[in-house]
Amino acid sequence: MTLLPLPALTDNYIWLLHDQQQAIVVDPAEAQPVLDALQTRHLTLRAILVTHHHTDHVGGVPELCSATGAAVYGPAGEAMPDPITRVSEGDHVELLGLRFEVLDVPGHTAGHIAWYCADGAALEPPSPLLFCGDTLFSGGCGRIFEGTPAQMLASLDKLGRLPDATRVCCAHEYTLSNLRFARAVEPDNEALREHNQRCEALRAQGQPTLPSTLAQERAINPFLRSRHPDVVQAVARTAAHALTGLGPAEVDTFAALRQWKNEFR
To answer: Do 104 and 90 touch, CB atoms closer than 8 A?
Structure first.
């Protein structure tokens, strides 16, 4: 089983997973990169998995469906064009001999879902897979457009409890920008410094920084570390203007951290 990130638009990745004959794709921003990959590798597209309704995640779905007849699976709580099988937490889809569980992760959008495959034994290297759309990025998280800070924090907590080896397959190459902010939050985080160096080297060679792993993200991602004393203190010093004191302290800190990132230059 092979996992590939297909670059799309300016900074998107469409994830393609295939067994040398059949394939699935996740969040196809546009159709052509997928059609090219299918033709080059002589693959049949069996299914399309979608995490949320934004155009840069579903823009290629109609053309791919028309060209391949692939089935589409997406969030039950968001407006999606038919035909689509609508899913939510507790549902699962079996494709290419793999079981993909649905996790509800609202925050970026109201009905955002993630796709989690716990059994990655057929992959090289073997590891669970997480297709998390715009909820969790390497070194960051998505903007909160339709949900609330409390929802986003709960969603990240849910993803953060998955196994260390889980490969984090997010949908954008935002890593260096995210790490620049993370270093402003935790300038003394040695794991963060080392990860930033690795990612800079990868990008200098034109290589993707993804997938990351959950173990890596727990060590360097301020949005998974928003309860860590160093992050809490940084927020209190730098983003005090955004602390409202109107809700639970951990949610208030997380909201202020996200607002700090929104304004960071």
So the answer is: no
* Whole-structure pTM value: 0.95
What are phi and psi for residue 184, nearest 5 degrees? Answer: -70, -30
How many distinct structural domains can be found in the chain?
1
**What are 68-107's pLDDT values in tens digits?**
999 999 999 999 888 999 999 999 999 999 999 999 999 9
Binding residues for Zn(2+): 52, 54, 56-57, 108, 134, 172
Binding region: 52, 54, 56-57, 108, 134, 172
Q: Which residues participate in catalysis according to the annotation?
A: 52, 54, 56-57, 108, 134, 172
- Characterize 141-175 residue by residue with b for buried, 16 or more Cβ atoms within 10 angstroms of its Cβ, and e for exposed: bbebebbebbbbbbbbebbbebeeebbbbbbbbbb
Tens digit of each residue's pLDDT (9 = 90 or more) over 22-33 = 999 999 999 999
Q: Residue 243, SS3?
A: coil
Domain limits for position 27: 2-263
CATH code of 40's domain: 3.60.15.10
Residue 27, sorted as left (phi over 0), alpha (psi -120 to 50) or beta, turns out to be left
Query: Residue 240: which of 223, 261, 260 has the closest Cα?
Result: 260
